[in-house]
Description:
Elements lengths: L9 E8 L7 H17 L4 E3 L17 H17 L6 E10 L2 E10 L2 E7 L29 E3 L15 E4 L2 E4 L4 E5 L2 E7 L1 H4 L5 H4 L6 E6 L7 H15 L3 E6 L15 E5 L2 E5 L8 E8 H10 L13 H5 L3 E4 L27 H26 L4 E4 L4 H17 L6 E5 L7 H14 L2 E4 L3 H11 L8 H22 L2 E4 L3 H6 L12 E2 L6 H14 L12 H9 L20 H5 L2 H14 L3 H11 L6 H17 L1 H4 L28 H10 L1
Parallel strand pairs: 1-2, 2-3, 6-16, 9-16, 10-11, 11-12, 17-18, 17-20, 18-19, 20-21
Antiparallel strand pairs: 1-15, 3-4, 4-5, 7-8, 9-10, 12-13, 13-14
Helix pairs in contact: 1-2, 8-9, 8-14, 9-14, 10-15, 11-12, 14-15, 17-18, 17-19, 18-19, 19-21
Amino acid sequence: MHKEMKDYGMIRVAAAVPRVKVADVAYNFEGICRMVDEAEAKDASIVVFPELSVTGYTCGDLFAQELLLQQAEDAVGRIAVRTRGKHVTVVVGAPVRLRGRLYNCAIVIRNGGIKGMVPKIYLPTYAEFDESRWFASGADFLSPSAHTSGRMTDDGKDFCLEGFEASVRYAGIRCNISPNLLFTVGRTTFGIEICEDFWAPVPPSSFLAPAGAQVILNLSASNEVMNKHAERRELVANQSGRTVSGYVYCSAGCGESTQDTVYGGSTMICENGRILAENDRFSMEDGILFADLDVERLDILRQKKNSFRGMAPDGTGAGEYASLYARFDLGPAAPTDFGKALLREVEPHPFLPEGDPERIAASSREILSIQTLGLIGRLEHTGIRKAVLGISGGLDSTLALLVTAMAFDRLGIPRENIIGITMPGLGTTPRTKSNAKDLMAALGVTAREISVVPAVEQHFRDIGHDPAVMDSTYENAQARERTQILMDIANQEGALVIGTGDLSELALGWCTYNGDHMSMYGVNASVPKTLIRHLVRWAAEHVFTQAPVRGDRPAAEILIDVTQTPISPELMPGDPKGEIQQKTEDIIGPYELHDFFLYNFLRYGASPAKIFFLARCAFEGKYDDATLLKWEKKFFQRFFSQQFKRSCMPDGPKISVVSLSPRGDWRMASDAQVRLWAEELSRLG
Length: 685
């Protein structure tokens, strides 16, 4: 297997909350240096400290004391010295006096040098805050002349952009100061905003992100009052989603004055609206939070989201607007071995609803509502009041039948107008046939049974096919015969044929062209197999649990059994005991793997190597490397070779962020070559 250490487009970041002593700079210096060493030891590329962490945020009028300011400047210089030879970039908060004014600054330190200072723009002067009493706004340093860039040589020497308006000397080192600074570490560019900046109606990060910052750092001192944390947490997550960025939020904690306020050390790391890591507040000890941000993923999402590349608020084009920011290249990222320990959760089932039971219920209900309303719209538009479905007793047709029943209920159309047809073939087993018939009875739809065996056997004679040869002709003839029956009965009844095929089957081309591939409206077209299983089970436990028994078995009992039945097209004869012998997942691989591959390939444009790496993390202990690689190769081979089926698929409602509709989310040439992806997979093993 491939053993080379790769970054997979990720960067490790840390948020450190040291216990501080107000105005005790020497004590705070030691705490910061101790946590810098910890961040370095764990291969973090960036470590962020709270606002004014060098002195403590709650110094009050002591910020006007010369001794405190001199000690703070000296401590920053000594922190810089302590970083020499380290890979980690350190961002600390300190008061900085320039030109007779004091600024609340974030100071960027790397390998012995100060690389830049970002002053706070918005100074809260309300309720418990009175920052304008001591500090001036960083807006003093906003200037259209800041439109240049430079490269750091990481030698610890002075570095500033001479064409940049605000060039200063601090702690014996010359650097730039401005809110409009961007810093690059390896392939990651970050920008900085400080506490209240983030609470402003239009935060600086709303400009930093389109200017090129993939990660936003927030040095904060946000006190704790009732219900504030929930609001803060939601705002941080939302801002990371709105800016399609990684967001590292680090707030002051224990040791700050409790005279009128308490600081809980709230710390969180988010990515595109999702909280990756979060600390426990109110700790009395030092605390450091780590997470691995996927910057490559953010770049892909921004690339696909054309509104992100739109106009700047002042009406200038995004490119022109971005030129207002000075850029500093700080050198390579830390040599982090993400393969040894990945500090982020990799969800093995990315399509499934997440959260507490209430949130899962809301998501499940929403998905079914989207499917139901989509079908309602098609029925109303066409004026059709009947539907025809092929009911196999499997997952896909079961979900399609449930959705159709809910649509008819909402339209006030009797369920008898739903014509469910079970079509036993050469591989139908008693279990699925029984479930199909019992479910139709339980739901009160019109049930019909039409065997395809006589017609298929006649067809074999017509085309000269030996039925003993159980090849694709043997299988597909049954699928096409079933589709013909559905279409013709729909013509007879003036009905709509409801498709049952799902997203996973479309991705793999696991459907018969012009057979189950075709319908008049595909309600499952963007629902993957893993989600279908979840929805059927959820419906059994929450929607149809109280349904009246119209047949011999309750609907909920039948639905649960459907979810436990092996997935199969049942186009091959069963075993001697009448059990399913043709199991889809034995042939093409586990659907949970294919759905995982599909999501990361389509949603994030991940390479085969990265998908393999993520799969190893997500399914550790369940599948070995050889198994993962075997089915990933199968996925890419089938995905590329079967595009022609997706190019002419029927209409169907979009359910999640991943869809394969050729009219919407996925436009791909049917002749696109798999070579690049196959070659990378071959190098993996």
